[in-house]
Description:
alpha/beta, 5-stranded mixed β-sheet, D-Maltodextrin-Binding Protein, domain 2, disordered N terminus, 10 helices, 2 domains
Amino acid sequence: MHFNLLFILTLILSSSSGFAQKDSPKIEKVINICAEDTGWLPYSSPVRDSATGEFDVLGFNRDVAEAVFSRVGIKFKFVVKPWQRCLKEAIEGGVDIVLDAASNEQRRRDYLLTTPIYTMTPAYFFHKSFEASLRDKTAKQIVSSQPICGQTGYTYTNFGIPNEEVKKLSKALGRIIDLVSERRCKVGLTRLEVLKRELPNYKEYTDIAYSEIKGAKKENFYWLINRQNKFSEELKKLIDREYEQLTKKGVISKLKSKYNL
Length: 261
């Protein structure tokens, strides 16, 4: 009798263990997370170790990654590359996740998108000499204010402005600010939260004014997951699940407060 009871308990425990393993995807490799080399403050801030020359990433995304992956025992490391290389290597290379991506039709085809990690505000900036004619404009009104400039590799369709209307002249926001200051671009496009962090670094640009795009909706930003990995679906489910739990527990809210988001 005791033997039979022990045998039944062993079977039950074995079955429970099997279900637990099934519910928790086994991702045994180190996850490579790519951040853009120019940074995306305060979400991703590349820093270089002067001793080793290796890059790391600080900011909101790092804190979220640590919170998400530490809960399930998955290791990760950051790699820092130009934006287009991050995107390319998350299709055909060794990058598993790309940070700080807005959504568009092409990206939805090429990658798996996580649940939204944060939202941002579509905005534009201009020389103060144009303030009377350019303050508080809709996307449709901005399109008539050519030339409009933006960053290489970025998408602005969520602004209500077709990408073909935007001259994408540099990957660095600082260079676009420079072109607007010189009045070689009438309007520069960016996200308000990033612009507010970047402008104080360019104290000479006291001639720059900015505004939210009137009527534009807040824009979701995602992590892009490499579809080619055999564990891509499991990785998306895991990130979405853990992010939801962290949100319910108030952890994400605290992280946003930490970075004044």
